Amino acid sequence: METHVLETDKAAITYDVSGEGGRPLMMIGQPMDASGFVALREQFPDRTVITYDPRGLGRSTRSDGRTENTPEIQAADVHAVIEAVGGPVDLFASSGGAVTALELVAAYPDDVVTLVAHEPPLIDVLPDAPPARRARDGFMNAYQAKGWGAGMAAFMHMTSWQGEYTDEYFALPLPDPAQFGMPAEDDGKREDPLLSAASLAITDYYPRVQALAAASTRVVIAVGEETGDAFTGRTAVHTARLLGQEATVFPSHHGGFLGGEFGYAGKPEEFGVRLREVLG
C-alpha cells in the first residue's frame, strides 16, 4: 500500500492506494477515516482500492480555520483525490461519507461510474424530519452538558430507536452511559466530530436530485438488513425513494463492512461479496 499527501484548498489530504487491477474502487466515510475500511479493502485484492482521511480527521490536516464538515468541501477534496489517481472510480461511501458522495456526483458528474451510498443520515428526507432533528439535537445537547460518554450514549439511543420519533421517545430519560459501556466522567473536551456541531452540515444536507439525475453515474442507495427502522435505515429508504428507486439491501448493520477492531463487527466478507455484485 502506498500513502500519499495531496495539497488541496487549505488542507493536506492523506490517501492510500493498494492493489492493482480493474477500475479504481474508492471507499470513503465521515467522520470515519481510512482505518475503518481495512476489512472491506481486503475483500478486493484484484482491484486498485483508494481510501482517504477527510480533512481535519485522522492523518489529514486543515488550515482553513474551520471545524465544520461540509459535504461541499469534502466533495471537492474527494474530487481532487480522484483526479490525482486518474479516475473515474467506483465509489463505496458510508454514513456521512455517503452524503459527501451524493454531493460529489452532483458537483463532479464525471468522477464516479457507480456510487454505492450506504445509509446516508439525511434528516430532511424523513416524513418526521422536525422531531428527528430534535432527537439529533438531543444527543448534541447531552454532549455539551455532560461530555463524551453522555453524548455517545444519547447518540446510540437516538440511532437505535426503531421508527419515527414520537412523544414516547421524547418522554424517555437520557440513557446512563454505563449501559452502553461508556464512561460517565466528563473529560472536558467538546471537539468530537460526531457529537459536536461540526457535523450539522452533513445531517442537514439535502440531495440535489436534478443534478444526480443528470449525471451519468449509477447511484445505488444501500441499507443494512439488520438496521431495520432505525434512523439510518429510514434515511436510506427515503433517500432511495427520493431518487426514484428502492434501497438495495446489504448484509449486517450500519457498519456491516467493519471487522472486529472497533468493537462493532459486521460481516465484511459477506458485505464484500454483495458490494462486488452491486458494482457489477
List its salient traits.
36% helix; 9-stranded mixed β-sheet; globular; 280 residues; alpha/beta; single chain; 10 helices
Note down, in words, how this protein is organized.
The protein has 280 residues and is α/β, with parallel strands linked by helices. It is 36% helix and 17% strand. It is built from ten helices and nine strands. It has helices spanning 38-41, 71-85, 96-107, 129-146, 148-160, 167-171, 200-203, 209-214, 231-242, 268-279; strands at 2-8, 11-18, 25-28, 49-52, 61-62, 89-94, 112-118, 218-224, 248-250. Strands 1, 2, 3, 4, 5, 6, 7, 8 and 9 form a nine-stranded mixed sheet that branches. A hairpin with a 2-residue loop joins strand 1 and strand 2. Helix 2 (71-85) crosses helix 3 and helix 4 (129-146) runs antiparallel to helix 5 (148-160).
In short:
This protein is an alpha/beta fold. 36% of the residues lie in helices and 17% in strands. The protein has helices at residues 38-41, 71-85, 96-107, 129-146, 148-160, 167-171, 200-203, 209-214, 231-242, 268-279; strands at residues 2-8, 11-18, 25-28, 49-52, 61-62, 89-94, 112-118, 218-224, 248-250.
